[in-house]
Design brief:
Layout lengths: L1 H21 L18 E9 L8 E11 L6 E9 L2 E12 L4 E8 L4 E9 L2 E10 L2 E13 L2 E10 L5 E10 L2 H6 L3 H9 L2
Antiparallel strand pairs: 1-2, 1-10, 2-3, 3-4, 4-5, 5-6, 6-7, 7-8, 8-9, 9-10
Length: about 200
């Protein structure tokens, strides 16, 4: 009787080991997501919205914090934008769709707006395209992020309404928080100080 119990236990353990060996492995993030690391950390932004059909325009400032979501399939981007008395917060998810070979971006903001965009990267330039309805009209958006240094990038948003020409709606600059303090020590002032000691 004892022998039968031992054999049953061994058979059970073998079955469990076999099941683990045949279990599918955890999926891994696409290698293309390595490029998204650029947006990690804390960023400060400032820019202006051009006057037009969507409003009178004006200047704005903002902050953004990027961090990996568990699993590293998405960069989570939490942002706050201020324009006069108006303050908007948002959360975006930057990922990559290996089937379509395209970057994805989904954002939800405190003013009820949502963004669903697809992106490509060409050298140092990220280009995101989107399409949505505004006041019964189809608006196509083109959001361009051009990396200008390891700690900064320029932003431009262009829109086309009902098939019309693309016009610039917004332009801004983003700088990594603390970047100027770190790079300043290597800037012209530091060089002049070194030269004055000679």
């Amino acid at each position: 009787m004892k022998r039968v119990s031992t054999l049953s236990f061994v058979a059970l353990m073998f079955s469990a080991m076999l099941a683990v060996a045949q279990a599918p492995s955890m999926p891994k993030p696409a290698p293309e997501l390595e490029k998204a690391k650029f947006f990690l950390g804390d960023w400060k932004m400032s820019g202006d919205i051009k006057p037009g059909p969507m409003g009178p325009g004006g200047t704005f400032t903002g902050t953004q914090h990027g961090q990996w979501m568990a699993g590293k399939f998405f960069v989570v981007l939490n942002s706050t934008t201020s324009m006069g008395p108006m303050k908007i917060t948002g959360t975006g998810y930057l990922g990559y769709n290996p089937e379509d070979k395209v970057y994805t971006y989904h954002e939800f903001s405190s003013d009820g707006e949502t963004v669903d965009a697809r992106g490509t990267v060409d050298g140092d330039t990220w280009t995101w395209t989107s399409e949505e309805k505004m006041q019964g009209k189809v608006m196509k958006g083109r959001f361009i992020e051009k990396i200008t240094s390891p700690t900064s990038y320029d932003i431009k948003f262009e829109a086309s309404v009902d098939g019309g020409e693309y016009v610039t709606v917004m332009e801004a600059k983003a700088t990594k928080a603390g970047a100027s303090a770190k790079t300043g020590a290597k800037g012209p002032a530091a060089v002049q100080k070194k030269e004055s000691k000679k």
